[in-house]
Amino acid sequence: MGYYGRLELKERARTMRSHGKSYLKIMHILHIPKSTISDWCQDIQLTHAQLRVLYENKKTGAMKGSIIAAENKKKLRRSQINELYLKGCKEIGHLTERERFIAGVAFYASEGTKSDKGCAFSNSDPAIIKFMVQWFKEFCKVADSKFHGALWIHHNLDEVKARDFWSSTTKIPVKQFYKTYRVGLKENSKKIRKNIHENGVFTLYVSDVALIRKIMGWIGGLTNKPCYNA
């Protein structure tokens, strides 16, 4: 670049700066280094109004950058979650009959009742409830007519919709459901519930004393210690 061309660029840069343009904006327009622009324009004093505009633009740009960074972070996290989920599914693979049996015993040991009055298994996850219905049928030989259900749901949610949802999931007729337990708000409570299940928590019932005693034996075999005393 010749002397006169560089002089013209300098004058353009100084004019743009005096009009309140940022160094970054001038750099993009004139395609010259930011350090050069700074040297050329260091003696130019901007007005308070011009400085305020530059500050607001910088703040907006930083905010936009933060939002973009946060979105990219979310995308990366979702990608990692999905990748690990698929990896986990692959590692489990196809379950054998015995593996399904032991999985059901483990589920029941975690979420099932242990009283000597019958079986009751509660969960909010439809996939787990569905698994346990099939488990009771396959390994405990429970007939469809022996299943009962009950719903635990917050007062402001749609009970009818939830009952229909669980009936469809379990194939248990609504007429075989026990009375729903509705949860009201506690007075003067400052606790904010973040995880309110839209369809409530479902409890699967099988009224069979002999079966619960057998299941307790299975749990005892799984944990290598007595879990049930008559």
Can you tell me about this structure?
The protein has a domain at 97-223: 60s Ribosomal Protein L30, Chain: A (2-Layer Sandwich), CATH 3.30.1330. It is elongated. The chain is an alpha+beta fold and 230 residues long. The mean pLDDT is 87. It starts with a helix and ends in a 7-residue tail after the last helix. It has helices spanning 3-18, 23-30, 34-41, 48-92, 97-111, 126-140, 159-170, 209-223; strands spanning 119-123, 147-154, 181-183, 201-206. It contains eight helices and four strands, in the order αααααβαβαββα. Strands 1-4-2-3 form a four-stranded mixed β-sheet.
Major β-sheet annotation = 4 strands, mixed
Q: Give me the CATH architecture of the domain at 97-223, please.
A: 2-Layer Sandwich
- The largest sheet has its strands arranged as 1-4-2-3
Mean pLDDT: 87
Q: In whole angstroms, how far apart are the ends? A: 98 Å
Binned, the helix content reads 55-70%
Beta percentage is 5-15%
| Stretches with pLDDT under 50, minimum 5 residues | none
What is the CA-atom radius of gyration, in angstroms?
34 Å
CATH topology of the domain at 97-223: 60s Ribosomal Protein L30, Chain: A
**How are helices and strands ordered from N to C?**
HHHHHEHEHEEH
Shape: elongated
Decide which structural class fits the backbone: alpha+beta
